[in-house]
Design goal:
homodimer, alpha/beta, Chitobiase, domain 2, TIM Barrel, 2 domains, eight-stranded parallel beta barrel, five-stranded mixed beta barrel, glycosidase (chains A, B), Glyco_hydro_20_cat (chains A, B), Hex-like_dom2 (chains A, B)
Chain lengths: 559, 559
């Protein structure tokens, strides 16, 4: 029967069931047998002393299975499947096991291990005969990833929860260890609930690093225990602050669903908001014309030649680092404006006095802030300019974020650093929405055009790199700068687009068929994960008319 | 004191209060005196037998005044104004009067009068001494517009509602009678609540025509009493249907807030969804490749050479027209694909039999459908191709929608028709979000780039027209085609961008200062109306970082 159906599908007589998985596993064998979820379905942990966050993840998986209420994306929706569902066998359990000898750690502990040392692999088997499904991994984090995959198979109609593609055998593991999403919470503020919802959506597509660009020149919404004045004066308002408790809730929740929160306090540029409480630390503070002193208004950068500023910033990073479970902390380092310092009498006097060049002083500043992070056991992270435009001495294991252009990865790799791919020409979610700088009737956004999900999806993480450089690419991320974003459009500007890189960096260059990833195969699956996100409360944008979403490939250009 | 403050403002010593009005009135004199809203504030109607919808509008105005809770967009927000508010006089009433001899009709009746015959003018005076404010108009619709303006002046902080720019004298009237917004509810469906919310936002910026592109090839979500099969089989689902009651609620509510609902059933192209119930009426029904037969999938057009189809379509328009208060109904007429008919044996046989050319048959079909509308007292509306690409005989008072390019208005005017400006190169809100057609990894949207609010705002309705043609321009509209939109992003893709044309067509070429409208002056006011929309529950997109919104012009390119 399976073979006959497959033959009919191959002949085009029946629609092939879309494998409703995103990212698509490295290796998968799927059938065409329907299976319902037994009303008594249970997820059974077969080992002793499971950690609390795994128990919580099991609860969440049950919740999604019961509440996704997603009808399958076929013409007729759920009604199309009624007959097959009636005669389907029922699955009564999913058994979770750890591989022999694997340690029973919490998901949270596994999620913040050093990048490259986490085990996210899993094996999932769903027999077609209703006998127990099994999920095996080397870590609770792997089990979490496997449960995420498991929950994507199920549709609902008429009080039945069912899947359409048993038997299933999956062997899965990520191609890259760093699969991120960056959110800027300084241009405009996002309440913690928006971040939590974003973390949930990230976990559904196996993204595992939340790069939190928490502060910038426009506002400083981060409460730091030792420096309460920073948020008191630098935040947009007292209600637009991430309290210490908020940060703890966010990092704790993130880790429990497989996500490492990499905080960034951008320095020494992008710091005007520090001037609200410490004006003496800021050169070219709100100077005019801003365009002489900064890439966007307001101008203002830390006077890193001032020992008091070095001391302050070092202590700030030290204080913040102590509060974070992640081993990665970013000191930023993008878009440093030299004119700001050239025109700053205090900086010039300090350079004269110290006998250092500006670049030497920048290097000393960076070594001091990075030293504080390293002393706390953290790995520093910087934007690409710190190694491409400045002669800053960095620890060998520093992680460098490529952002200006996809062409820059090779130059970073040439310097020998590990790198994360976040190139604006593929991964900037804010591009293409018009210019936000005032008095510019005809201008478009600086990084026009819009970066479609297709564009992001076709990104090659290893382009232009030599074989010896390729291992330096630890992953990538899509990014949302929020000059034109707020909670009102967060979901719709991010999802499902940010799922594109999630698959690029999880599945890698080729899909389970061995063929390169391609947008045509991907689209029906991306519809599916988008509709599922919507059912779970994330207001993801639609990709096509519903007419197309119900008819895979019928709206392709040559269909 | 007023003069002194004004001098300080002129010297740049104090920020000028932004006139929080959108669209900006034709003529306005404003001061800098603060005025609070008395807790006993009342809106008093000074004439007999006010209509129910005017009483309802008064209630709504009270509601906004009490619940907008908008703090002023200055550094420090509401706290900045505390001292001025403490010493401010209180306004205790706004008196509504009709000009002598004016008829007391309902707002609803005034809103659906023939385009060009409505009176939306009003005069608003708010003295600085706390004595009663007065609002005078020639119609209840004018009073409604004036109350909309009145409600935009008020901020809230610390239990005080106040304004910052008394005394106010406004003489206002629209430059163009047709100020629309078009929503496509066929590519993806929008529940009535989303439409109602959109109508509210439209009314806040004095837009007065909701162009409802209700059906298209992808779905037919409109219940028509005499033709229930159309929605039963052509809608996406039974829950994605506008019932007769929904349509009545929407048109009734719209009229009560000054909006005329112009329904469009696009014909003879864009009608595949009619084929779900009447396959015999559709040529090239879902034919492949769709690109040979249609501008987007699925292909399918009415066989207008078939007398049964002419009869059906004519009866359809007659039936629909009877349910609509508006005097304008659109029969569509865009993107007719000729190949579809060339390859359709039935069409070719019917042409041979009738001896007509395809164009002659199209003209007969159109005369029949338009005849049905005219018989119901309606004015037919068509897309520009009906007069530019086809030799269709139309009534002289037919309204033509320009959409393909702003360059096409002159050709339509050359034919002598009244026209509405909806050019894709300025007013298409869907452009620039990437290609939605599948299997197109590199493609952008057909009408790239994104049409920013600035682009829309710089549109000249009268460009390239002779003086004698200019009166043919009755207004314009921004449009949302919804291949990539759903309720999830409706507010953020439409607002505040659709307010741009609202000001272009209300205020006209020059603002109250006599200077041409310009984006630099407009931006702070657009921020203000955007924040007010947000307070009223419309999730409009942010235009800039909050830092910029609080500092008018500080983020201008040369600031």
């Amino acid at each position: 029967m399976i073979l006959a159906l497959k033959a009919l599908i191959a002949l085009g007589a029946l629609p092939a069931a879309v494998l409703s998985l995103w990212p698509i596993p490295k290796s998968i064998n799927a059938g065409t047998t329907f299976l319902t979820l037994s009303p008594q379905f249970s997820i059974d942990i077969t080992f002793q002393s499971p950690p609390a966050d795994l128990l919580s993840a099991v609860e969440t998986a049950h919740y999604y299975l019961a509440n996704d209420n997603l009808e399958r994306l076929v013409v007729g929706r759920g009604a199309y499947d009624v007959q097959d569902v009636q005669s389907a066998k029922a699955l009564s359990s999913l058994k979770l096991s750890l591989a022999e000898g694997a340690q029973v750690n919490s998901i949270s502990a596994e999620s913040v291990k050093a990048i490259g040392t986490r085990s996210e692999d899993y094996q999932l088997d769903i027999p077609a005969d209703g006998s127990a499904a099994t999920l095996t991994a080397n870590s609770t984090l792997g089990l979490f990833r496997g449960m995420t995959t498991f929950s994507q198979f199920w549709y609902q109609y008429d009080d039945k929860v069912y899947m359409v593609s048993a038997p299933i055998t999956i062997h899965d593991s990520p191609a890259y260890p760093f699969r991120g999403f960056m959110l800027d919470t300084a241009r405009n503020y996002f309440p913690p609930a928006d971040i939590i919802r974003t973390l949930d959506a990230m976990s559904w597509v196996k993204l595992n690093v939340f790069h939190w660009h928490v502060t910038d020149s426009q506002s400083f919404p981060l409460e730091v225990g030792e420096f309460p004045e920073l948020a008191q004066k630098g935040a947009y308002s007292s209600s637009a602050v991430y309290t210490a408790s908020d940060v703890q809730n966010i990092t704790t929740y993130a880790a429990s669903i497989g996500i490492d929160v990499m905080l960034e306090i951008d320095t020494p540029g992008h710091t005007t908001s520090i001037g609200a409480s410490h004006p003496e630390y800021i050169a070219c503070n709100q100077a005019s014309p801003w365009s002489t002193y900064a890439n966007e208004p307001p101008a203002g950068q830390l006077r890193f030649t001032d020992p008091a500023v070095v001391n302050f910033t070092t202590n700030l990073f030290s204080a913040v680092a102590k509060t974070l479970p992640s081993l990665m902390v970013s000191t930023g380092g993008d878009e440093l404006n030299i004119q700001c310092y050239t025109d700053d009498a205090q900086t010039q006097a300090e350079l004269t006095s110290s006998g250092l060049t500006l670049e030497e002083a920048l290097s000393e500043f960076t070594q001091s802030t990075h030293g504080a992070l390293i002393a706390e056991g953290k790995t520093p992270v910087v934007w690409e300019e710190m190694v491409l435009d400045h002669n800053v001495t960095l620890a060998n294991d520093t992680i460098v974020m490529v952002w200006i252009s996809s062409a820059d990865a090779a130059a970073v790799a040439d310097k020998g650093y590990r790198l994360v791919q976040g190139p604006s020409d593929y991964f900037y979610l804010d591009c293409g929405a018009g210019e936000w700088i005032g008095d510019t009737p005809e201008a478009m956004s600086w990084c026009d055009p819009f970066k479609s999900w297709q564009k992001a999806y076709t990104f090659d993480p290893l382009a232009n790199l030599t074989d010896s450089q390729k291992p330096l690419v630890i992953g990538g991320e899509q990014l949302l700068w929020t000059e034109q974003s707020s909670p009102n459009n967060l979901d719709s500007i991010v999802w499902p687009r940010a799922a594109a890189s999630a698959e690029v960096f999880w599945t890698g260059a080729t899909g389970p068929s061995g063929a390169p990833l391609n947008v045509t195969e991907a689209l029906p699956r991306l519809h599916d994960v988008r509709f599922r996100m919507e059912q779970r409360g994330v207001k993801a944008i639609v990709l096509q008319p519903l007419w197309c979403a119900l008819r895979p490939n019928a709206c392709d250009v040559n269909a």
